[in-house]
Amino acid sequence: MIQVCLNGSRGAGDGAVVPLSPDALADSAAEAVAAGATDIHVHPKTPCGQDSLSPRVLAPTLEAIRARVPVPIGVTTGAWAEPDPEARLERVRSWRVLPDHASVNWHEEGAEEIAAALIERGVGVEAGIWSGTNGAARFAASPLGPRVLRVLAEVTDTSAETAEETARALLTDLGPAFGRPVLLHGEDGGAWPVLRLAGRLGLATRIGLEDTLVLPDGERAASNAQLVAEGLVQYGWDQRSS
């Protein structure tokens, strides 16, 4: 599986190539799926470009993308979108239009409650385990571990020289991860080295403008679709399917 991460916390300052509005996200999602993406991760935005968990923001984004693509769509529940854990939980419980899955960062306060609420509503949970945090240890102790959709192993080391080593250490910390599938990805300078490692290990991965704005050669990416197409090459999907 290759997931496209359409925008993340990036905004207008990162360039017009980053999709922000529901229509722009839907267009970008359709192009990325046509390029080979099989799953979508998106950060719904307010009109001023801020990440939001509000149902009034989430619904039109999901509806616009679903009108264009047939693949699963996931959203963030990151604390930066709603810092107060109780308010974040109420936001999730107030969603009228549900995503197929949502990422829950296990090192954040209130993660267990958010994950339980999502599972109760039939939404798959991507357990976000970040390198450099206590997320792996907290997840190992969680009774919800066997019930998550997959583990989202997030390598926060942005150095191209050390990200692969950090990724391997994170996977070791995760251990069996309750037997759940693992999606491994990096960000910025670590995005491409970690994606290539995921290919060698046969793990699911993701790529998109949330994780990097540039292609492996350092050239600025023109779209999420271009990143997905290059990601398939870097991962080695052609060789695997031949």
UniProtKB/TrEMBL annotation:
From what superkingdom does this record's organism come?
A: Bacteria
GO molecular function terms attached to this record: 3-keto-5-aminohexanoate cleavage activity
Q: Name one Pfam family in it.
A: BKACE
Signal peptide residue numbers:
none
Q: Per its UniProt record, what InterPro entries does this chain match? A: Aldolase_TIM, BKACE
UniProt-recorded name of the protein: 3-keto-5-aminohexanoate cleavage protein
